[in-house]
Amino acid sequence: MATASTWVDWLTTDSPESRLQGRLAQFYQTFTRFMRNPLAVCGLAIVVTLVTAAALAPWIIPYDPLATSLGSRLAPPSAQHWFGTDHLGRDIFSRVLWGSRTTLAIVVLVAILIGPIGMTIGVVAGYFGGKLDRVLMGVTDVVMAFPRLILALAFVAVLGPGLENAVIAIAITGWPAYARLARAETLSLREREFVVAARLQGASPLRILIRYIAPFCIPSVVVRLTLDMAGIILIAAGLGFLGLGAQPPAPEWGAMVAGGRDYLIDKWWVATLPGAAIFVVSLGFNLLGDGFRDVIDRRVA
Amino acid sequence: MSDIISPTTAATSETPLVQVDNLFVRFPGRRGPVDAVAGVSFSMGREKLAIVGESGSGKSITARTIMGLLPEAATVTADRLSLGSQDLRGLREKDFARLRGKRMAMILQDPKQSLNPIQTAGTQIMESCRLHLGDSRRQARERALELLRKVRIDNPQRVFDLYPHEVSGGMGQRIMIAMMLAAEPELLVADEPTSALDVSVRAEVLDLIESLVVERGMGLILISHDLDLVAAYSDRVVVMYSGRVMETLKASELSRAEHPYTRGLIGCRPPLDRKVDILPVLKRDPAWLS
């Protein structure tokens, strides 16, 4: 225990001896502030569980998620099949675990697409203003005017069903919020003295955007992203439900809910348990996002 | 401040460094356009020129016009507006970016606001070296350390790695100066360079600016409303009121100024050597605006 308390001392010191210690101490403080919020911790636990489950899925699933066994189809939850089996006798628990990989993949891919795209558009529009701003924001508003799921549906319909196309479609519908956010930040940053000073130094607009403006937009974009994750999961599940996301027999939560739709009344577990997974994970991301916002972007809180 | 610098250099006979002729800067207002600068003319060589005037007299706008830093709403017209042989009228942002830092630079008022909070002092100075002198990382680092020494920072190695929130106002302003002088511009504009600083470091920072300017043979435009400071640190003074130049005179003759506005400005300062109950207030003569 002695070592543990020295570590804490080292992390909570008022006079860090090195830059590294200072950084770690800062991080530790933020972390403790985050940990004081029970809901945020709950969200973090859910997301960590999701990530672990996805990472370890090949080793922890009790059954092959694709193996059908018509003899034990639609079996209720039991000691052998924790979540029961579906209409082809596949183990739902294994499929939910395996499906977490799909969900996570979609969320991560969409996030790394829409964050940078939205930010680039917003920062450029905000910094240069004028006609360019009007054109870019016009496009943004047009995309924003459509309900996200409907627009994503339209894009998937054009691109063809499948996981990659679902990701692209969700990304195309997701960036406008980030563009708006980054533009708003840029408008205020643009007038700040240090940006003027950079211009006085002779820095090119590109340089100013990358080194002086974009870094300040990142915190709010990250917070917004974590809060948006739940929405992304729901849209992905929605596309899956309609048969436009991951294709069967791949286990995808939305598609699994769709598969259980026919037996909803008497074999409730087939649709309910994957649905519960969607619910819990969305909730987890939302709580995590709220917690993040409270610690990194305290202006909003 | 009496021990500081007497005006020496006079305008050189060749092409003036800065030439402004009949400059108008117009902003749209609710009741028609407003001229923030209305017919300002002056020219300067590699000397120290001060622009003084009240708030709103157009001194900052004049300097920002030269630097190309006006808000988009402003329209600039002038018979002549040039830096050396470079005409500054109608230049685009891209062209200004090429001149700024390299041929002309400007020191802003508050170093707390004007340094990038997420970059170290060293990085920001290196930025200038890399932009204008095409230095490699290593060269830029060397040069930045040298510049920090030049602005009289005792421990450049340490300051190099500090972030703006870790330095004092005076040190911040020195870093700013180092940043702006990196590419050895011909013209330095200092817009109230010491207004945001503690009184005790003002003289130091001004001494520094002045000695660097003299050493490098640069032109300096010092914008201020502090007449004592202007008298001590400049060769010539342009007195502005309501967007117009009231008079131009030698700094050494400031105390003998004849224009009623300048006299008024001088008269309304609280004197240190005797007690005054009510300070005189400027009586504005509409004739000044004609």
Topology:
The complex is a heterodimer of chains A (301) and B (290).
Chain A lengths: L1 H11 L6 H17 L2 H23 L31 H37 L1 H16 L2 H12 L3 H12 L1 H15 L2 H9 L3 H37 L11 H8 L8 H28 L5
Chain B lengths: L17 E10 L6 E11 L3 E6 L5 H9 L7 E3 L2 E4 L2 E2 L5 H7 L4 E4 L3 H4 L6 H13 L3 H14 L5 H5 L8 H13 L5 E5 L7 H18 L2 E6 L2 H7 L2 E6 L2 E7 L9 H8 L23
Parallel strand pairs in B: 3-9, 3-10, 7-8, 8-9
Antiparallel strand pairs in B: 1-2, 1-4, 1-5, 5-6, 10-11
Helix pairs in contact in B: 4-5, 4-7, 5-7, 7-8
Summarize the structure.
The complex is a heterodimer of chains A (301) and B (290). In chain A, 75% of the residues lie in helices and 0% in strands.
Number of helices of chain A: 12
Distance between the termini of chain B: 36 Å
User: Which quaternary structure do these chains form?
Assistant: heterodimer
| Major beta-sheet overview of chain B | 6 strands, mixed
**Biggest sheet, spatial arrangement of strands of chain B:** 7-8-9-3-10-11
SSE order of chain B in H/E notation? Answer: EEEHEEEHEHHHHHEHEHEEH
Mean pLDDT across every amino acid position of chain A: 88
**Could you list the spans of chain B in which at least 5 consecutive residues all have pLDDT below 50?**
1-13
Distance between the termini of chain A: 36 Å
Structural class of chain B: alpha/beta
Q: What's the total helix number of chain B?
A: 10
Overall geometry of chain A comes to: flat
Helix content of chain B: 25-40%
